[in-house]
Amino acid sequence: NVIYEKTIRKYELLNPHQCCPLVFCPLLQNSIMLLAFSHSAFFPRKGMGYDHLAYHLLLNCSQENNDQLDCRYFGELLAELNRKTNDLYSCLLQHVEKIGGRYWPYTEDIEELIPKGLSEATKQQIRYLLQMRVTSDKSLRLVLSTFKNLREELCHLQDDLGKLETDNVLLKKDLAFKESQVKEYETMLSSLRENNRQQQQGLRDSTARCRSLEEQLLSLQLNEGEKDCQLKELEYSKRALDQEIQSLKLQICSSPTVQTTTDELSSRYVEMINNLREDKDREIRSLRSQLCQFQQDISRQEGNNSDLQIKLHELTAMLEEKDVCIKQQQEELFRLKHERVSSSQSPGVTAIITKKYRNQYPILGLLSDDYKVTSPVNKSQTIVIERTGEIWKHVSSSRDSLQGVRYGVFNFSSKTL
Description:
This protein is mostly helical. It has 2 domains: 2-157, no CATH class; 158-416, Helix Hairpins (Orthogonal Bundle), CATH 1.10.287. Helices cover 77% and strands 4% of the residues. The chain has a two-stranded antiparallel sheet. The two termini are 85 Å apart. Residues 72-147 form the POF1B helix-loop-helix domain. One of its GO terms (molecular function) is actin filament binding.
């Protein structure tokens, strides 16, 4: 309509002496709509050849000449329509190349379709119309193939989105499982630390008792040495008394009174010596019994200390193994939490998938001019998608190791419990 009004205004300005424009408006509108916008002007009907199409075009041109319409403006109109059609086709072709679509070049010799014996202006107008027909046909083919490719790519994107959501749910389940395992390991670690503290306290107490028993043993050994010295002194005094007794016996033999006194003295001394010997024997027996008891206690304490040391070494080794395992689980949990926090706070999104995906999305070429279509690669690999613009990276790794770590941790926790 805009082109039609523009043409009418040009015609009225250049031909003010002609008739009222209301007389020519229906004819001009019918001619333009027939030649520029009608489907039959671009594609001939069944049973109508290109000679009939040229005949209709000649008929329209003759009607315009009869209505005193200048062919230059009609040619400008057709040239502008041809440029618009070519611009539309080039724009469609550019977008199709950007998204990696397929197109087939289509050429047609339009010079053979132009009838002979026409003026050069009429031939140019017919040439414009035939070029617009060919360009419209190619544009239609491009649009149909492009929408078909877009539907396929949208289905592909929808499938990948479903797979990504499923993998996201699985990752969340794994993260919850790891968190529960970490909580269990923290409780186990606290209980082990408490048991270790109690064992160390018991070890310190037993060490203190052993030291006190050793001090008592040393004191008893010193007392035993003193008793031995006293016993030797008593034996020495006994021998001295025996010698005196012998000398007294010799003197008694010489006089009976002295003998009676010496007998009394000797019996008294013998009784005193026997009593002293019995006392000393009792003291020695009690000291020996105490020494044996202390030795038994010391040997028992040493055995208990060795058992405690062995048990303490076992508990220490077990605690070190648990610490190493817990550190590994904490590092893995920290990494998962860091990925979760970075995925929820940072503008980039990171996901780990082990699936068989295609690694190109040509439809994304409509959003960015930097996107380049590459040949499709279908491999079973892990894809780490880092969306910081529209660039996707591929990093090969294995998720089976993560599953193995998960089941290994579960078996370890069950055995420990």
